[in-house]
Every structure is written in C-alpha cells, then in structure tokens.
Amino acid sequence: MSELSKVQQKKIHPHKFTLWVALGSIIMMFAGLTSAYIVKRNQDGWQGFELPRLFWYSTFVILLSSVTVQMALRSFQEREMSRYRLMITITAGLGLLFITLQILGFMAFEAAGMKMIGRGSSPSYSFILAIGGLHAAHVLGGVIALLVMFIKAFSKRSRSYNSVPIEIVTTYWHFVDVLWIYLFIFFSWLN
Predict the structure, then answer these.
(1) Which letter, b or e, does each residue of 113-138 get, where b requires 16 or more Cβ atoms within 10 Å of its Cβ?
(2) Domain boundaries defined on the chain
(3) pLDDT of res. 2
(4) What is 62-104 written as a DSSP string?
(5) What Cα–Cα distance (Å) separates residue 140 from each residue in 41, 72, 107?
(6) Can you state the angle between helices 53-77 and 164-190, rounded to 10 degrees?
(7) Residue 7: per-residue pLDDT
C-alpha cells in the first residue's frame, strides 16, 4: 500500500469532523446550562422537585433506540437492507416516542402545580424546561435525520452503499442518548 493511500485512510471524513465540532459545541452549551443550574440552585427560594415516572420510561426508550440504531448501522454495513429498513424504522419510531414521553413528562410537572413559564413560575422549574426543551430540540433534529435515512432506505432510486451518512446519524443519536442520561442523572441526584 502506498504512503498516500495510508495517509488518506487515516483522514477523518469532513462531515464526521463537522459533526464532532458540533457535538463539542453542544457539550459546552449543556455544561454551561447545568453549571448555571448548580449556581442558581444555592440561592434562597429554590424549589426542589421529583422527576415524573414518565422520564424513567423515556430513558428506557432512548437507550433501546441506541441499540436499534447501532443494529441499523451494522445491517447497512453488511448490506442486509431489509433488516436495515426495519431497524431504522424502529429507531425513528422510538425517537418519536421519546419526544412524546418527554412532552407528557413536562405536562405532568404542570399538572403537579409546577409552573414553568409565565407569571408565578419558579426559576427551578424554568431551568428544567429550558434544559429539557433544548435536549428535545436536539432529539427532534436526530429524528428528522432518522426520517431522512428512513425515506432513503425505502427509495426506489439507485442505491449508494456509502455508510458515512448512517454513521453520522448513528454517532449523533448515541450522543443525544448519552446527553439525556447525563441530564437524567443530573436532575435525579440534585433533587
């Protein structure tokens, strides 16, 4: 193998590099938000809370979706397209279920009298909404990417077996999964 081809094999794909830069930015944003939460939490009048059971269910759902997206990637790489289609479909469905459970979880906060926005809202509850809402927005972006992969999987156009797009979506999906686990533990332990 020539030196040039060895160097080319070691290079990271530009789209993967861009993804890693974006993930670094997202990490910094959530680190800043959770740090602000910790600082603000030590002020007078801070109200504690308990996470609704729905957040436990959504955690299980996103963990399961991480398994199915990894199975989808493996299936694509092995050219098992029917299994790939099934796994990408299940992953997209689990992503939508996660978002639904998150919305229902925030509705449970409201039903318990924890006002998150507007007059009479609590800063602690508003923080939860801001951090959880930002995470949900990132999950929604991942679901959109999964739906694009789903559409491409069932497309009749000529097939390209370039695995970079599904690798990027899989990496991003694992990231939002790990981020949710961090947030879930963060909110569970601090309250």
Answers:
(1) ebebeeeeebebbbbbbebbebbbeb
(2) 52-190
(3) 61
(4) HHHHHHHHHHHHHHHHTT-HHHHHHHHHHHHHHHHHHHHHHHH
(5) 28, 19, 18
(6) 160
(7) 55
Per-residue pLDDT band for 156 (boundaries 50, 70, 90) equals confident
pTM of the model: 0.86
Alpha helices in the chain (DSSP H): 3-10, 14-41, 53-77, 81-111, 123-153, 164-190
Query: How far lies 57's CA from each of 51, 98, 119, in Å?
Result: 11, 8, 31
The residue assigned the tokens 């993930």 is 23
What's the CATH number of domain 52-190, 3.30.1330.10, 3.30.70.270, 1.10.3470.10, 1.20.120.80?
Answer: 1.20.120.80
Answer yes or no: are the C-beta atoms of 142 and 169 closer than 8 Å.
yes
Nearest to 99 by CA among 144, 68, 69, 67: 144
The amino acid occupying position 99 is: I
Q: What is the mean pLDDT of residues 52-74?
A: 96
Which residues, at least 6 apart from 124, have a Cβ–Cβ distance to it below 8 Å?
40, 41, 46, 47, 48, 49
Q: Report the chain's mean pLDDT, rounded to a whole number.
A: 88
Which burial class, exposed, middle or buried, applies to 93 when counting CB atoms under 10 A from its CB (0-12, 13-18, 19+)? middle
Lookup result for tokens 């602690």: 124
